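Help needed: design a sequence for this.
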């Protein structure tokens, strides 16, 4: 049985670079984008948005109406 350590890399490290198209921070997976958003902006609602094969995060204002 392996012990699972709770290792959380710094959110900044999750970004793999900037998008050549829109200049946003780029993430490889939807999950990494989400995690990075949560790490960098706790309490602020972001959503992952796809951009080609990449993922970005987008600020969500006003969940409903
Ligand atoms: Zn993009």
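Sure. Designed sequence:
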């Amino acid at each position: 049985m392996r012990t699972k350590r709770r290792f959380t890399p710094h959110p900044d490290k999750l970004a793999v670079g900037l998008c050549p198209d829109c200049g946003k921070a780029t993430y490889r997976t939807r999950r990494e984008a989400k995690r990075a958003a949560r790490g960098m902006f706790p309490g602020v609602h972001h959503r992952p948005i796809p951009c080609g094969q990449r993922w970005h995060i987008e600020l969500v204002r006003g969940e409903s109406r």
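Residues 13-59 form one domain.
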